[in-house]
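Appendix B, Record 12. Input sequence as logged:
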Amino acid sequence: MAAGEPELLPEIVFADRSRLVEGVRAYGLIVAMWLRSTMAYRASFVMTTLGNFVATAFDFVTIMLMFAHVDALGGYSLPEIALLYGASATAFGLSDLALGSMDRLGRRVRDGTFDTLLVRPVPVLAQVAADRFALRRLGRVTQGLAVFGYALVTLDIAWTPLKVLMLPLMVLSGAAIFGAVFVAGAAFQFFAQDAAEVQSSFTYGGTTLLQYPPSIFAKDLVRGVTFVVPLAFVSWLPALYVLGRDYPLGLPEWVAFLPPLVAGLCWVLAGLAWRAGLRAYRSTGS
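Logged structural output:
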């Protein structure tokens, strides 16, 4: 470096640092702060996590009570429905754990506290996603995994390497799809501030829908959750491949391997929606 030439290395390093990396780092720091706060009251954490586990378990208890009176639901046995339930519940639980705070965005927009996030040198999406991170939501994940495990132990499946690979694939891809729905729903709240229930209808309502076989629903609804809001790729299509069952709507077998691509597309669209919503935001004081 020539004498008198300014030191450019810090600026170059900062410029090369990805915005995504910055967001992930900020998210991790905020989550760590909330985890320290949670662990300060460990007895409360254990009780709330257990309560979350028990509350979500009642959903599957309801299904079990149905099977006390019938042998099949929509042509599916209890272990088969348990596989659908476990896959969707685990995928949603992971997404809810990571991004469940997104549904508070409308409240922040209404009361003006969203402005405080804009003045911080941290990506806004990371702040909203990590806000009030609730580790107690692990109860939902644990309950989903328990039902998932019961299904795998009970079912008589002709396992192949592809079917084994499909199990983690559908859970992780499903969590990513639900995460994109969380972000897109939060973006919608920039335009309709009192829209948390609309978002919940696609997230909490979506996971409840996926816990039952597609054969009991009208074809128009199945088309909607396949081609419009692609929740069918969370559990229905990959799980039907594992079970060796026919797909709804006469879809080809290879669609079961599309969840990662669908998740990527959903995140691209959710990112565009988030940017559009953020640009359209107008402070309550403006």
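The mean pLDDT is 86.
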